[in-house]
Sequence to fold (291 residues):
Amino acid sequence: MSVLVLIANPAAPVLSNALVEAVQRQTHGEINWLAQGIACEIVAPRAGNPVEMAREILESHPVDAALVPAANRKKQLLVADMDSTMIEQECIDELADALNLKPQVAEITERAMRGELDFEAALDTRVALLKGLERKLVEEIRRERITLAPGGRALVQTMKAYGAYTSLVSGGFTLFAEHFAKRIGFDESVANVLLFDEAGTLTGTVEKPIVDKTVKRNRLMALTAEKHLSPAQTMAVGDGANDLDMLQAAGLGVAIHAKPIVAEQAAVRIDHGDLTALLYLQGYSDDEIVR
Fold:
């Protein structure tokens, strides 16, 4: 049995009874509200392609539609990307801005996230441009320029409250990942290590081997085995091409505000909702969410 989930952004709760009923008339199934105005599920839709039907009806409304299996609905493992997923920025772009190099670096970042460039080579090129940046400035940027993505703490804290293990696995840097993993509440973090010289300035290099798409996927699989879980009990979320292998290996892979190559290939795409969408996909109702 499957469940069709309709999700709006909590900041714009536009999911109305009329919209849900219009979708249900085409897809059939039983309506169950998870959060008024924000999330509703249609249990056991009988239409051949309920997601496409729903998207046609919802086309002019900022509402996402996804079909998920009813079995193993609440996941016991979450593996998440950091940059532009759990936080709203790309950290390396913000570091480059301190050297007046943001447009140049951001273009490389964007192309790498779209899958147009080799991730390791693109990372090396960008980190080399950061040579000479002082650690204290890196920490200042972390403190003043990086913001948490809406819904992220609720996602992690709720899943942990129901027994899940949570891992932040980033192609970014430990100086950011370790800090924000603690703030959000992740059980662990994995990321790349920027190298500094004795004076506390960046050498323009990163410790090898780097955290790339293979490391992300392998961490998901290793945690699945360590926690004695089946793949169906796992969830992954990300936005860039280096997340795609991880998303496809998870029981439920979610592309959130993602690059086209990722949104097209992931099992579920969230274009409008925030990170609480991942809770509604799992069937959590509003009164179950830890805020």
Remarks:
- The domain at 1-71 is CATH 3.30.70.260 (Alpha-Beta Plaits).
- DSSP finds twelve helices and twelve strands in the chain.
- The radius of gyration is 20 Å.
- Residues 167 and 188 are 5 Å apart (CA to CA).
